[in-house]
Amino acid sequence: MFLDTKTNLIFDQKIDQFFDAQSKDVYEESVQKTIHYLLSFLDRDYFCSGDTASDFISKKNLLIPDLNQQLSLDQALAQIKALYLDHTVAFHHPTYVAHLNCPVLIPAIVGDLMATSVNTAVETWDQSTSATLIEQEMIRWICSEMELPETSDGIFTSGGTQSNFMALCLARDAYAYKHFGLNLKKHGWSDVVSKFRFFCSDKSHFSIKKNAALLGLGYDSVITVATDNAMKMKPDALVQAVEKEKQLGNIPIAVIATAGTTDYGSFDPLQTIAKITKEYDIWFHIDGAYGGCYKLTETHRHLLEGTAMADSITIDFHKSMFQPVCSSAFLVRDTKYFKYISYYADYLNPLDHRNDECPDLVEKSLQTTRRFDALKVWFTLKTVGTKTIASFLEKVHYLALDLYHSLKEDPNFEIVHKPELSTLVFRYVKPGTKDDGCYDAINLYIKKTLFQSGQASVASTKLNTKVYLKFTLLNPKSTIDDVLHIIKMIKDTGQNYKVTYE
Asked: Which residue in 173, 257, 289, 302 could disulfide with 340, CB within 3.0 to 4.6 Å?
């Protein structure tokens, strides 16, 4: 034996911490104890403690593990309760209305627990076997819902930013090969690529510009197109922007339409944009990270009819299908386009061993090691079903409309738009005052004060350089009384600021 006595002792003490057949009792006991603490988290009556970074730094003894002291699970759970569970943001709480964080369904949690425990990596068939087929079936299901053709395909991703990156990458490489015979994956950059241009609305997600920069094309390769009063891309403005870039000697290669903008939940006119992209023979991508799942509803299906003509689509199940993060998908009209990101490694997925009946999903992914995130979607579809999910989505949409109608005649609020999804952008105003600088300060004060007090979490954004507050309603259990309670807190806080300001 090469191990010394001390090492053997440590080994013997901790060997039962692995998830295996010999440790079933330890696993069951550990999960049960953890559930006890999670239930105490659900018993909290506040969305967040409001503690500052300084407050947490003062708990340095909890933040930094003592490597000379090994805690029992009970001790570690008690510490994480004091450090995390007692303070962290509770997305299920009725006073959390800030960002695109949804409450999660219990079947999805079951799927996540199973995927985490078994630790399947959906890279190659010999690592995942039937998990590969489950993910493929979830992709086929969502492709069918989006009315994509039989040639369509997709892959689960970490989120909308990664999915949008893949869209821009495939659009770039496909255009370069089709029109210039360039194999960018093999040979790298070409000067003509610096003239490539993407088009999206001025309300699109920041990841479009970020991803263009990561692809080496820069922010300037993204041309933003004006939107109308409903925050939708103007088709005429799109055509004008494309023609202008052509006159400048640049090369339009793709349009990114948004189905559910982050701030306003607005849908670009997908069918009209699809026709424009077809006329110019350029890629049509739909960023449906927020609104894509509304294809399941009767209320919004018509707004997503253009999905059938898309070359690629982004869908975030962890935004509007009540899934834990991460759960996102990138869909493509034709599986052949995945050749632009595929790679065959001798040790992992050698090309000469390729087998369509036992696919290696790493061929379609930017990631190599990937979690089995499709399992929680499978559990959700099997136990909850699409009709119920659709009813949840319609519920939060109607809640946003109810809030809009409750506020539109209130002199204390200036509303930007009528909700098309489940967001409402507005600001608190002081009747008789038109000082935008004062309004900006008041609304930021409201946001900060409510968060730090643990009373409520609302988001802020800017429109035409002015600061506004934003409600993002994703909890089907929330009621109009819940959101009006937050509105009252906003009013009370704004009135308190008036005294301070004057």
From this structure: 173
For 15, 74, 129, 294, the CA distances from 20, given in Å and listed in that order, are 10, 21, 19, 41
Looking at the structure, tell me whether residues 371 and 391 fall in a common domain.
no
Are the beta carbons of 103 and 473 closer than 8 angstroms? no
What the block records as the tokens of 313 is 């689509």
Q: Is the pLDDT of residue 499 over 70?
A: no
How many structural domains does the chain have? 3
- In 184-275, the DSSP E strands lie at 196-201, 222-225, 251-258
Residues 6 or more apart in contact with residue 491 via CB below 8 angstroms: 412, 428
Whether the model pTM is above 0.70? yes
Cα Rg of the chain, angstroms: 25
pLDDT score of 407 more than 60: yes
Q: Is 2 exposed, middle or buried (0-12, 13-18, 19+ CB in 10 A)?
A: exposed
Same domain membership, residue 353 and residue 235? yes
Q: How far apart are CA 202 and CA 208, in angstroms?
A: 11
pLDDT in tens, 423-461: 999 999 987 777 878 999 999 999 999 999 999 999 999
Contact 464, 229 (CB under 8 A): no
User: Concatenated DSSP letters for 259-301?
Assistant: BS-TTT--B--HHHHHHHHHHHT-EEEEEETTTGGGGGSTTTG
User: Which residue range forms the structural domain that includes residue 200?
Assistant: 110-383
264 and 145 together in one domain: yes
Higher pLDDT pick, 497 / 290: 290
Q: Which of 184, 346, 175 is nearest to 251 (CA)?
A: 175
Contact (Cβ atoms closer than 8 angstroms) between residue 165 and residue 213: no
89, amino acid identity: V
**Residues contacting 292, CB < 8 A, separation 6+:** 146, 259, 260, 286, 304, 307, 313, 314, 315, 316, 320
Q: Is the same domain home to 67 and 148?
A: no
Residue from 200, 229, 400 nearest 300 by CA: 400
Question: Is the Cα torsion angle 64, 70, 72, 75 positive or negative in sign?
Answer: negative
146 and 284: one domain?
A: yes
Last residue of a domain, one of 383, 404, 422: 383
User: What is the spatial distance between Cα 238 and Cα 223, in angstroms, rounded to a whole number?
Assistant: 9
Cβ neighbour number for residue 120 with a 10 Å cutoff:
21
368 & 409 share domain: no
